[in-house]
Structure formats: structure tokens, C-alpha cells
Amino acid sequence: MKIIEYKGQPLSGLICRKTEDKAINDIVAKIICDVKTRGDDALFEYAEKFDGAKLNSLEVTQAERKEAQRKLEGTPLLEAMKTSLENLIRYHSAQKNEGFVLRDNDSALGQKLTPLKRAGIYVPGGTASYPSSVLMNAVPAMIAGVSEIYMATPPDADGSVAAPILTAANMCGVKTVYKIGGAGAVAALAYGTDTVCGVDKITGPGNIYVAIAKKQVFGDVDIDMIAGPSEILIVADETASPRYIAADLLSQAEHDVLSAAVLVTTSRSIARHTAAELEKQLRLLSRRSIAETSLQNNGYIIIADTVETAVKISNEFAPEHLELCTQDPFALLGAVENAGSVFLGHMAPEAAGDYIAGTNHVLPTNGSARFSSGLSVSDFVKKISYIYYTRDTLAQVKDKIITFAEAEGLDAHANSVRIRFNQERG
Q1: CB atoms < 10 A from the CB of 40, how many?
Q2: What is residue 167's predicted lDDT score, i.e. its pLDDT?
């Protein structure tokens, strides 16, 4: 890990975030075009090419879903998933909003909230199994009132989908699960095929091909965000534990060689001991190679003069995950402007938010926390405005509407108001 003294220099000169490979854009565009043109045939070919699976059907059968549930009955994982689901429902239910109406005697202005009809969630699969991703994406859609939730996940080479993923889909009321992955899955959800139902919005994590595919279909459908590599920034004072800090930095470094792990501390002692702990704990990880490369390329320890300066650095970085490992983290919370999710104190590791706490782990990355938020119920709701005027109400503002319209050269707009007050009534 690089140890840097912060002297007020721009953070962009200290920390370099990785960007997407431009060459992948063309590959993804061809896959999307192929799926739009050839539909299911293209998806079967991609399943064999990329996942090594010769499929008879793109849909997971109800029998497969029931068998997956049976396999998990009585396991600690199923109990953990149930707790996660309960907490997610509790947290996301608090996010629900109602519409409103502003009434006068002869007018009404309002907003009604309408859930999307169809949502598509993408869940990484194949050699990996991430049931937490199913829960995090499906629960806010379910709470929002989305009537049809579809899921795409790449199959194993034998054509199966991991039991925990299917069980999580069952728990969240996912209507249909498709055995498709990568950019092809995003294209299928966006445009539909004979088998795959096209949706209104696509959410969920994935590799760079998935991220770029979501970017390319945006506008034809909505998406949650363009997700980059995972990242964590920890603000720590002298009360923090180097062992805890190192463990939390590694929890993100093990995701991907492009993941970023940053410590900003006011203590040189914490900086030195954390660096030593990272070396010690790295040896114990099954994904040591990934985590080690991540720390070498994207790991930083920054020494700041005060915790206030440390939070200022964090706001400039706008991390996906921010841990405030300080004596009084709540005193700093008000100063946090840019972060996907904040973890307060020494006993709130980022992993708690990934799995159990109830907050959502689909969060903005790559600095986009400056202008965007984590996945929530509002992401699956449309806001529709409405207006009601009587003749008397319109009469009071007609001249002002006409003035606006004529100033902008839009005569038909002006006439649409003026005609209602001509002597000839229509």
C-alpha cells in the first residue's frame, strides 16, 4: 500500500481510478445487435460459447426452483437469507412515498406514483453464487409494487443455476429466471426475445461487459447505474483498530483487481500498523492474488492532519462505501456529502451492509456518489404529474400563458388557450 502525506493537493493527482476498456464497447455493441436480430438462437450460442452450457431451454423450470429450495432447507445460509430479507423489507418499506395533491377552489395540481410494470435484475452466476444480489435488487422492486420481476443469471457448464440464487428468487417473488449471462442477457431483457420478456428497467451488478451493455441500452430501457469496480474508503483516528481496518480494506480488494481500497487516517501509527496487518491477513485469503493486485494498483493510505480534513478528502473521492472508524462517528456524519453508504463506528463493517443490515448494497461507484444514490424503492416508481383547471382558473392566467407562448414563437400553444375564450364555443 502506498502511504501518502496529504498537503492539500488535488485528490485526482494522488488516486487514479480505473476506467473501462474502450475496445469492449464494439464487442458489446455486436452482441446486442445479434440478440436483437436473432433472439433466442443467439442466446443459446452465447451460453455455449461463454458459459460452456448446451441448453435445452433458456428458462429455469418450476421443478428446478422447487428442488433448489429443498436443497437449502435447514441450512445456516437459508436462515441468514431469511434474516437479510426481513431487514431489507423493513428498511425499504420505510422508503415508500405517497403522491400529493394541491387543491384550490377551482384547480388541482398533483403527483401520482406508479410502479413500473416489469423489472429485470441481473445476477452474476456461473462459478460464483451471489444470492445477496438477488435480494438487494428484487426487494425494492417488490416493495415498490412492480408486478413482474424477471431475473437473468449465467448457468453453470451443466446448465444449472446455483440453489442459493434460485431460492433467493423464490423468496422475492421473481416471476421467471433465465439462464443467460453477460451482455447478451442485458440485450435480451432490454428488447425481448421469443422466450425472454422485455422489461422497463434493468438493475444489478456484473462484469465490464454487463456494465457497458447497460450503458448502451439505456434510453430504450432504464437502468440503475453504470457500476464500476467496488471501492471502500475508511476514515480512521487513533481509536481505530489496524486489524479491523485491514480486514475491511481487504473485503473490497478481494472483489476485483480493479477494486479500490483507501485509508485516510490522522495517525501515523495507525497507517504503519494497518500496512503490516494487510501483509499478515493477505496470506490467509483464498483470493489472495486478486486482493494483492488490487492493493498494489489501487490501494492507498493517506495521512491527514485532522478528521475534518479526512472527511473532506472522502467527499472529493465520493466512495461507494465509507467507514467512519472514529471515536465519535456521528459527529462527522453531517459533514459527509458524497458517499454511497456510510458505516459508523468500529463495529459496523461494510460486510454488514452487503448482507444483513437491510440497507442496499447496489451503490454508486467511480465517484458517481457525487450525483447519484444507491438502489431504492423510488428507482422502481414513476412520478406522474396532473393538472385540473376550471374555466375561471384558466381565465385568470390565460394572458400570461399566451405571452409566454408568443415570446417563444409557438403560436399553436397560444391559440390552444385563446380558442377557449373565443365567442364561438366548441
Answers
A1: 17
A2: 98
Residue with cell 446455483: 162
Q: Is the pLDDT of residue 127 over 70?
A: no
Using left for φ > 0, alpha for ψ between -120 and 50, and beta otherwise, residue 367 falls in left
Residue 363 has a CB neighbour count (10 Å cut-off) of 26
Summarised one tens digit per residue, pLDDT across range 89-102 is 999 999 999 999 99
Please state, in angstroms and rounded to a whole number, the distance separating the CA atoms of residues 214 and 200.
Answer: 12
- Of 351 and 125, the structure prediction assigns the larger pLDDT to 351
Q: Which three cell numbers stand for residue 97?
A: 412515498
Strands (E), 39-138: 100-103, 107-115, 118-122
Q: What angle do CA 89, 92, 93 make, to 5 degrees?
A: 75
Task: Output the nine-digit C-alpha cell for 189.
Answer: 431483457
- Decide if 102 contacts 108 (C-beta within 8 A): yes
Which phi and psi (to 5°) does residue 160 adopt?
A: -95, 165
Alpha helices in 241-287 (DSSP H): 242-253, 268-282
Secondary structure tally for the chain: helices H, strands E: 16, 14
- Asked whether the predicted pLDDT for residue 19 surpasses 70, the reply is no
pTM passes above 0.85: yes
Instruction: For residue 371, give every residue at least 6 positions away whose Cβ sits within 8 Å of its Cβ, in sequence order, or none.
Output: none
Instruction: Decide: residue 61, CB within 10 A, 0-12 exposed, 13-18 middle, 19+ buried.
Output: exposed
Q: Strand pairing of 100-103 and 107-115?
A: antiparallel
DSSP helix/strand/coil, 398: helix
Tens-place pLDDT, residues 343-384: 999 999 999 999 999 999 999 999 999 999 999 999 999 999
pLDDT at 278 over 80: yes
In this structure, what are the phi and psi dihedrals at residue 62, rounded to the nearest 5 degrees? -65, -35
Give the span between the Cα atoms of 187 and 196, in whole angstroms: 10
142 alpha-carbon distance from chain centroid:
16
Q: Active-site positions?
A: 320-321
Q: 146 in helix, strand or coil?
A: coil
Match 452482441 to its residue by C-alpha cell: 31
Q: What is the mean pLDDT of residues 49-72?
A: 96
